[in-house]
Amino acid sequence: MKTFSFSKQKQPGFSLMEVLLAIALLSIIVTSVTGAIIYGRESTALSGKRARATLIAEEGLEAVRSIRDEDFSNLTNGTHGIAITNNTWTLSGTSDITDIFNREVTISEINSTTKEITSKVTWQQNLQRTGEIILKTYLTHWMLPTIIDGWGNSFVESNIDISGSLAFGMRIQVDGDYAYLSKYLLGLPDFFIVDITDTNNPFISGSLDVPTNPEDIDISGNRAYVISNDQVQELAVIDISDKANPTLLATYNAPGIDGSKRITINNNRAYILQDDNNFLVVNITNNTPSLLGSLDLGHEGKDVIVIGDYAYTSSEMDSQELRVIDISDTNNLTIVGSYDLNGSENGNAITGFDETIIIGRTNGEVSTIDISDPTDPVLLDTINTDGDVRDMILGNNDEYVFLGTDNSNAEFQILDISNPSKIFIVEELDTGDTLNGIAYSSTKNRAFGVGPNGNEEFIILAPD
């Protein structure tokens, strides 16, 4: 029988070194996990703050966009804060604070119609770092009208020295390939026909002596109607069928002893403003003009236009710069409406179409007025051209009004009136001297001006 015996062997244990290594490894693992948790949380926090800062910066840009949409002129250059006033975004102070975030919005001018907007948000990320978000955009004056047919950068294409150092170009009308203009003060002749077939090379094709000092002119068919301050021949009727040889057909002695200053022709009738405050309606169906009706306006009328059954006059009367006259019955001419513009400056030039009147004043203001109810005119908008508005004419399908002024830096101006409730200056040009008269040709897309410049009483203005 076999006998088995077992021997007890010695089992190895952990040495001190192994224990220390285990502890070190465990410490590294715990530290790494703890660090990962801590830094992960911090990174998440920083990422959250950065995301919120970005939203605040974006809000700054959108707030400025809203301010721009209210009125582009509100975008004042500089560094601003943003606030809400009466539920509307406004610029306020030099910065604004939301919790730990400081926002600065900087507005810089690129040009007259474009601004650079910078929205910067800063915050303290931790004890060692400051966070910063910067966003930029560009905002334009999008409400400005689209420039029509090249106007917006005009220039003087050509000019004519009429004659005489004291020759003042007074008024002008354009019809087809010819411009008709009157001259004031010394020297004869004082009525001219200018061939504008080639706007680069205009020339005088004919001229005529008319009664003393012509004030205004209008054209109807083959007739030119010129009024003057002559006391016995206020109205001259001129045959212009022969452009080289205009002929005086008739003169008309209006009632009273004063001359006349403005005329407009409509449906074979001449509507005339006299220096003695009278408003006249004259039949011009033949070569012997005859009076149909008159009205004492009480104050001097400055300019006149006819739309439908109403004549609209600008006035020197402080409380009625615009007056509306019912002309449907020439035996009973009646003032049926008026409008009092702010201030005491006289109404001066006037034009209009459909249900809109445009009136220019001696202080440079131009106002658009709603005449859908002629008896109750309503002001739509006003803009300042910084010069006495001497004359105005509609153009570009009644979307523009061309102005002649005495603004020494911008005698020629164009306003966009496509929205009569929001009018804009499209063009300003220094022509060298006052423009007393202005005309426009849609077929040539040119404006024509006359004034007192001794070397170029007649000019042609072209778009770029």
Write a structural description.
This protein is 12% helix and 47% strand. The chain has 464 residues and is mainly beta. The chain has two domains: 28-140, no CATH class; 155-462, Methylamine Dehydrogenase, Chain H (7 Propeller). Residues 4-8 have low confidence and may be disordered.
Topology:
Layout: H1 16-70, E1 78-85, E2 88-92, E3 96-98, E4 101-111, E5 114-124, E6 130-140, E7 155-160, E8 168-175, E9 178-184, E10 191-195, E11 203-208, E12 214-220, E13 223-228, E14 235-239, E15 247-252, E16 260-266, E17 269-274, E18 278-283, E19 290-296, E20 301-307, E21 310-315, E22 322-326, E23 334-339, E24 347-353, E25 356-361, E26 365-370, E27 378-384, E28 389-395, E29 400-405, E30 412-416, E31 424-429, E32 437-441, E33 446-450, E34 458-462
Antiparallel strand pairs: 1-2, 1-4, 3-4, 4-5, 5-6, 7-34, 8-9, 9-10, 10-11, 12-13, 13-14, 14-15, 16-17, 17-18, 18-19, 20-21, 21-22, 22-23, 24-25, 25-26, 26-27, 28-29, 29-30, 30-31, 32-33, 33-34
Low-confidence stretches: 4-8
For the sheet with most strands, the description reads: 6 strands, antiparallel
> How many extended strands?
34
Structural class from helices and strands?
A: mainly beta
Summed up, what is this model?
By secondary structure, the chain is mainly beta. Helices cover 12% and strands 47% of the residues.
Core attributes:
single chain; 464 residues; mainly beta; Methylamine Dehydrogenase, Chain H; 2 domains; 6-stranded antiparallel beta sheet; 4-stranded antiparallel beta sheet; 1 helix; 12% helix; elongated
